[in-house]
């Protein structure tokens, strides 16, 4: 099944569920639209980039972020979850470790910090292949890692979401936090990029 066809099928199923909920009086369509709009209005990869830039410039914040991501992101006004609370675990790329995130069952993802998930993240191909052959998948994203770097794949769930803390690039010591945030990409926050 192609990605476009699968997305169309999922869209029809979601619309059918919405119709059933509306017909039974569980939810009003306009209210549901308002809730979704409010939820997504502040959802952007810039939020995750701000979290990373703060961690790069504030060692105490970085320590709190790695120890308890859920609480640390609230310091910057963000939440890890949506309707249901989720635990946010932040995993750090180092000289010897590269982290990549997937949700093998569906597409669990910290929307508030990364914006709506890209179509490739939801695809069955990504979800199955990154677990079996992470180095090959990373190469397809343009990430070439030395053979000395271990790749760890983290599987998100309804209860726990992951965010990758990329390595701070060399030569950026003079950059302000806002400038550093501008270097961080959504792919870097998922691990399919280095920044």
Can you give a write-up of this model?
The chain has 195 residues and is α/β, with parallel strands linked by helices. 49% of the residues lie in helices and 12% in strands. The chain has eleven helices and four strands, in the order αααααββααααββαα. The strands form two sheets. Strands 1-4 form a two-stranded parallel sheet. A two-stranded parallel ribbon has the order 2-3. The longest helix has 21 residues, at 3-23. It is globular and about 60 Å long. The two termini are 32 Å apart.
Break the fold down into its secondary structure elements and pairings.
Blueprint: H1 3-23, H2 29-41, H3 45-57, H4 59-67, H5 69-74, E1 87-92, E2 97-102, H6 111-114, H7 119-122, H8 124-132, H9 134-140, E3 150-155, E4 160-165, H10 177-181, H11 186-190
Parallel strand pairs: 1-4, 2-3
For the largest beta sheet, what order do the strands appear in spatially?
1-4
Q: What is the number of E strands?
A: 4
End-to-end C-alpha gap: 32 Å
Number of helices: 11
Shape descriptor: globular
Give the fraction of residues assigned to helices: 40-55%
Report Rg.
Answer: 18 Å
Q: Approximately how much beta-strand content do the residues carry? A: 5-15%
Order of helices and strands: HHHHHEEHHHHEEHH
User: Biggest sheet: strands, sense, closure?
Assistant: 2 strands, parallel
* pLDDT < 50 runs, ≥5 residues: 1-7
What's the mean pLDDT score?
A: 86
Output the structural class. Answer: alpha/beta
């Amino acid at each position: 099944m192609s990605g476009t066809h699968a997305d169309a099928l999922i869209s029809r199923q979601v619309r059918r569920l919405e119709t059933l909920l509306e017909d039974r009086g569980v939810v009003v369509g306009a209210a549901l639209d308002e809730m979704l709009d409010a939820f997504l209005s502040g959802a952007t990869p810039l939020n995750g980039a701000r979290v990373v830039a703060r961690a790069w410039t504030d060692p105490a914040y970085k320590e709190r972020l790695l120890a308890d991501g859920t609480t640390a992101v609230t310091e910057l006004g963000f939440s890890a979850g949506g309707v249901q609370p989720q635990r946010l675990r932040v995993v750090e790329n180092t000289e010897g470790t590269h982290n990549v995130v997937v949700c093998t069952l569906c597409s669990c993802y910290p929307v508030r910090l990364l914006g709506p998930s890209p179509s490739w993240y939801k695809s069955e191909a990504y979800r199955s292949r990154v677990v079996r052959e992470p180095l090959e998948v990373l190469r397809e994203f343009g990430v070439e890692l030395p053979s000395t770097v271990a790749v760890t794949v983290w599987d998100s769930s309804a209860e726990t979401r992951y965010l990758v803390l990329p390595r701070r690039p060399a030569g950026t010591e003079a950059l302000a936090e806002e400038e550093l945030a501008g270097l961080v990409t959504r792919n870097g926050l998922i691990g399919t990029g280095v920044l």
